[in-house]
Amino acid sequence: MVNQELAGRQPLLQIEQLKTYYPIRKGVISRTASHVKAVDGVNLAIYPGETVGLVGESGCGKSTIGRTIVRLEEPTEGRILFRGDDIAHYGSKAMKQVRSDMQMIFQDPYSSLNPRKRISDILAEPLLVHGILPKEQVAGEVEKLLEIVGLPKSYKNRYPHEFSGGQRQRIGIARALSLKPKLIVCDEPVSALDVSIQAQVLNLLKDLQKEFQLTYLFIGHGLGAVRYISDRIAVMYLGKVVEIATTESIFRQPKHPYTRALLSAYPVPNPHLRTKERIVIQGDVPSPANPPSGCRFHTRCPLAMAICREQEPELKGAQHSVACFASEA
Q1: What is the mean pLDDT of residues 278-304?
Q2: At a CB cut-off of 8 Å and minimum separation 6, what does 264 contact?
Q3: DSSP secondary structure of 67-124
Q4: Which H helix or E strand runs over 235?
Q5: Coil, helix or strand for 211?
Q6: What is the rounded distance in angstroms from the CA atom of residue 61 to the CA atom of residue 92?
Q7: ABC transporter domain: which residues (predicted)?
Q8: Which of 78, 103, 152, 295 lies most in the core, judged by the most C-beta atoms within 10 Å?
Q9: In the chain, which residues fall in CATH 3.40.50.300?
Q10: Residue 225: its pLDDT value, please?
Q11: For 13-101+179-328, which CATH superfamily applies?
C-alpha cells in the first residue's frame, strides 16, 4: 500500500477499520435503515512529511474522514493511531494535548472565522488556550504568523469580512500553523477560491510543508489540485477506499473502474489532445444508508461480475492497492 521510499518507516497517522455512522431519527429512510454509513471500514496510513490526497464524489465520506481524524466527529468503530497512540476514544482533556499536533484547514474560509473577532484575536486564541507562549509574547507571534502566510502584519486589526476569499484562507492556514502541528487535515481548502488564487494557496502549502516539515491529508474533488500537491492518492466511493497508489501511478495506470471514470473527466488544455475516451458512469450513487451488497460500485460498474454482487473486494496490492475483482481477473 506504500511505495518503496516509505517502506520500513512508521506512519504518523494510521486509521484502521474506521467507521463513522450517523443515526437516522425519523422519515422514510428510517424504515429500511438505522444509520447513514458515511465512513465504513477505511484503512489508511500517512507517513511523516508526505501529502496524501483523498478524492471522490460529493457525499462519499472523504470530509467525514478528515473530521473524524481530528475528532470533530466521533468514530463509531475502528482505531485512529496518531504517533502510535489510539486517540479514537480520547476524552476532551487528552484530545486537547493531541490537538496542538493535529490541526485542520476548512473549506469555507469565511464561516470558519469568527466574524465578531479581529484577526489578532482569532490567531491569538489557540496560543492562549494551549498556553504556548506567555501573554506578552502573543502579539509578536501573531505578526509572525501573518508574515509567514504572506499577509502584512498591519492586517491583524481587521475583521474577516474585510478580506478576500484567498486572504481569509491564508488566515485559516496561519491559525492552523499557530500551534506548530505535525499533521494538518486540509478539507477542500481551495475549492471555494478562484483558479488563480488556488495556485497561490497550493504553492503556499507546499512551501510551508518544506519549511516546517508538515504532513498533509489533502481532501478534494478537483483532480488538478490534488495531483499537484499529493505524493499518494486514495480514491473513495460510498464510504470505502477503492484504490491507493502514488500520484504518478494513479494518473498513469488507474486500476479501479471508478478511478478510470474520474480521470477520464479530468480537463486537459486542448480537448483534441485527450488520449483516453470519456467514461460516463451510468446510474445514481446509492444511498449510504442502504448501500449495495458486495462491491458498492457494482450497480454502476461496466465490468461488474456475479461475484461483485455477492462479495466485498479487499484492498490488495503492495505499492498500488485496489479493491476490485475485475482488476484481478
Answers
A1: 89
A2: 276, 277, 278, 279
A3: HHHTTSS--SEEEEEETTEE-TT--HHHHHHHHTTEEEE-S-TTTTS-TTS-HHHHHH
A4: strand 232-237
A5: helix
A6: 24
A7: 24-263
A8: 295
A9: 13-101+179-328
A10: 93
A11: P-loop containing nucleotide triphosphate hydrolases (3.40.50.300)
pLDDT tens column, 226-255: 999 999 999 999 999 999 999 999 999 999
* Residue 17 region by backbone torsions, left for phi larger than 0, else alpha for psi between -120 and 50, else beta: left
Count Cβ atoms below 10 Å from residue 145 Cβ, excluding itself.
24
Per the model's pLDDT, the better-predicted residue between 32 and 120 turns out to be: 120
Across the chain, mean pLDDT equals 91
Set of cell numbers at residue 302? 461496466
Pairing of strands 13-23, 77-82: antiparallel
Q: What is the CA radius of gyration of the chain?
A: 21
Provide the sign of the torsion angle of the four alpha carbons 124, 129, 131, 134, taken in this order: positive
Q: Please, what is the Cα angle at 297 between 327 and 33, to 5 degrees?
A: 145
DSSP state for residue 103 in the 8-state scheme: E
Among 316, 318, 321, which Cα is nearest to 243's?
321
Asked if 250 and 257 count as a contact pair (C-beta separation under 8 A), the reply is: no
Cα(92)–Cα(98) distance, rounded to whole angstroms? 10
